[in-house]
Amino acid sequence: MERPDLPPKGAPKSASSTSRDDCELPENINLLPAKVIAQLASEDREHLKDYVMRFEDCKDVENGSSELVKRLKLLMKGFRSTEERRERLKQSLSETKELEKDYETNWTKLNNLMATTYSDEALGLKMKKELEDLDHRAAALESNRGLDIDDFIAQYLEIRQQHHAKREMLCSWQKSR
After folding, report:
1. pLDDT digit string (tens) for 86-100?
2. How many domains does the chain have?
3. Of 39, 71, 103, which marks where a domain is finished?
């Protein structure tokens, strides 16, 4: 059997190195023995074309998948960023809820304090207590015999004036309710 004429190794491929159907040969064809190349060129031509076409299609798939990998990495980076923001917002929400709870507690305390200190009933009781205190002070002043008469009269008049002014305010206030 005679060997086919092959171009020298490393020589650029020309149009003559392709088959009569202009089928492009693989790059490493020179690694195959001449018999195998001749057999491939004659018997398995259609299979070889199909193989080369599939191989070229794989490059498109590979390029497409590398593009998808890049997009996936960008999405993962965005997801991590979103997850970090979510954790910060979760922490902020927790702190806000704690502050709201403290606010409501303090508001309740203040509201109770205001109700017990400044409600109509509380103010009436406070004024009655002040009247009782003024009565006790006047009685204590009356029982104190060691006081100079001028001092006694001045202090007693002051206490009684306060007493009558507060009693008048209490009566007016109770009538207006």
Report:
1. 999 999 999 999 999
2. 2
3. 71
